[in-house]
């Protein structure tokens, strides 16, 4: 039941309905057993393992962009999807590059020669990250690639 | 002895990326949520439609929740008028804000867990102020998700309705104050009483 603290603030008492539906206090600790948590973690690991092997239509646009054939709309959608998915899965490098690409293309309706170059460099970096599955990445190689991309974006996003 | 399972809890998972929504669903099912009661939606509007038709107990939404193709052009130009009010839920926090405040909301009190990127602290404050119950940092981790669900079920919080905020009580600290320290409002009351007597 709601009680008035001040004239315009109401506080509804905490509802334990969900707790009851789960089976009462402490029931969830018994339901979420270590075995079930491990099984759930395995689902994530399996998904990550096969993620880049599955049919991934958005990558077609990234592949084409890497050889200079840039379809702005397709690359934008591909980068957006990659960013969302790799962030959720913990592929940090690909997430950073696709985020940069998606933001770069966000307000650009038409692409000039320099924009195509920027997109191409992003696409090359994404494909390199995918090829390596990010294993053994990090350190100097990753930061060098990211800083190169950052410099390109800084240079060509200013009009 | 049989291990307890979850029987009748329904969950709605919202993510622009269907693959990720399905992955979260798989994780929930592995944690023993019934497959038939875990629903997925790819944007806020689809989510609201599911909520209108189905009783949902828990929502898990991504921060990134752009409207689908059919709404995106409209959202760029103006706020769109929907059956839920003048809300364009362009991200997960807006979606929660819509749920908490719209007069046509199907359930203002429903608990919400939000998934957000690892470096977006401003998102966390904004999501909290929109009425999100729990925040879960990406990458997705089953143990952390389980912990958030336990927190929501076993430690429910008061629900505040004020002119500026609707959602779970944002103050989480409970327990005793350090020795020798008094609760601030009690100190304030003493000062108030002394001032009144003196005057």
Task: Describe this structure as you would to a colleague.
The complex is a heterodimer of chains A (159) and B (199). Helix content of chain A is 69%, strand content 6%. With 159 residues, chain A is mostly helical. Chain A has a domain at 56-157: Four Helix Bundle (Hemerythrin (Met), subunit A) (Up-down Bundle), CATH 1.20.120. With 199 residues, chain B is α/β, with parallel strands linked by helices. Chain B has a single domain, classed as Response regulator (Rossmann fold, 3-Layer(aba) Sandwich), CATH 3.40.50. In chain B, the strands form 2 sheets. Chain B has a 5-stranded parallel sheet, sandwiched between helices. In chain B, strands 6-7 form a two-stranded antiparallel sheet. In chain B, α1 (18-30) links the parallel β1 and β2 (38-41). In chain B, α4 packs parallel to α5. Chain A binds chain B through residues 2, 8-16, 18-19, 21-23, 25-33, 36-37, 39-44, 47, 81, 84-85, 87-90, and chain B through 3-6, 8-9, 15-17, 19-20, 23, 26-28, 30-32, 57-58, 62, 64, 109, 111, 115, 117, 138-143, 145-146, 149-150, 152-154, 156-163, 169. β2 (9-12) of chain A pairs antiparallel with β6 of chain B.
List the helices and strands and how they pair.
The complex is a heterodimer of chains A (159) and B (199).
Chain A: E1 2-6, E2 9-12, H1 17-22, H2 27-31, H3 34-51, H4 58-66, H5 72-89, H6 92-106, H7 113-132, H8 139-157
Antiparallel strand pairs in A: 1-2
Helix pairs in contact in A: 4-5, 4-7, 5-6, 6-7, 6-8, 7-8
Chain B: E1 11-14, H1 18-30, E2 38-41, H2 44-53, E3 58-62, H3 69-77, H4 92-101, E4 112-116, H5 121-129, E5 134-137, H6 142-154, E6 159-161, E7 166-168, H7 184-198
Helix pairs in contact in B: 4-5
């Amino acid at each position: 039941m709601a009680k008035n603290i001040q004239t315009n603030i109401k506080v509804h008492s905490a509802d334990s309905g969900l707790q009851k539906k789960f089976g009462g206090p402490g029931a969830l600790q018994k339901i979420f057993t270590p075995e079930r948590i491990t099984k759930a973690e395995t689902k994530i690991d399996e998904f990550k393992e096969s993620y880049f092997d599955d049919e991934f239509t958005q990558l077609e646009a990234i592949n084409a962009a890497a050889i200079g054939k840039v379809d702005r709309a397709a690359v934008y959608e591909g980068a957006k999807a990659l960013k969302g998915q790799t962030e959720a899965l913990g592929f940090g490098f690909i997430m950073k590059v696709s985020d940069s690409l998606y933001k770069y293309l966000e307000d650009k309706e038409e692409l000039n020669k320099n924009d195509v170059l920027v997109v191409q460099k992003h696409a090359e970096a994404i494909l390199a990250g995918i090829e390596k599955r990010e294993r053994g990445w990090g350190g100097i190689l990753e930061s060098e690639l990211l800083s190169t991309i950052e410099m390109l974006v800084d240079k060509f996003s200013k009009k | 002895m049989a291990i307890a399972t979850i029987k009748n809890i329904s969950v709605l998972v919202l993510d622009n990326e269907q693959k990720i929504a399905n992955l979260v669903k798989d994780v929930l099912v592995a944690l023993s949520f019934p497959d038939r009661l875990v629903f997925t939606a790819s944007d806020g509007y689809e989510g609201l439609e599911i909520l209108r038709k189905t009783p949902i107990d828990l929502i898990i939404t991504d921060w990134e929740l752009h409207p689908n193709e059919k709404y995106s052009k409209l959202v760029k130009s103006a706020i769109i008028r929907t059956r839920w009010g003048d809300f364009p839920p362009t991200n997960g926090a807006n979606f929660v804000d819509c749920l908490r405040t719209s007069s046509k909301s199907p359930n203002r009190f429903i608990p919400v867990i939000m998934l957000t990127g690892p470096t977006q602290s401003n998102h966390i404050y904004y999501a909290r102020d929109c009425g999100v119950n729990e925040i879960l940092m990406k990458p997705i981790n089953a143990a952390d998700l389980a912990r958030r669900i336990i927190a929501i079920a076993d430690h429910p919080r008061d629900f505040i309705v004020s002119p500026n905020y609707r959602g779970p009580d944002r103050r989480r600290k409970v327990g005793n104050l350090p020795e020798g320290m008094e609760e601030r409002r009690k100190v304030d009351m003493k000062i108030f009483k002394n001032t009144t007597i003196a005057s």
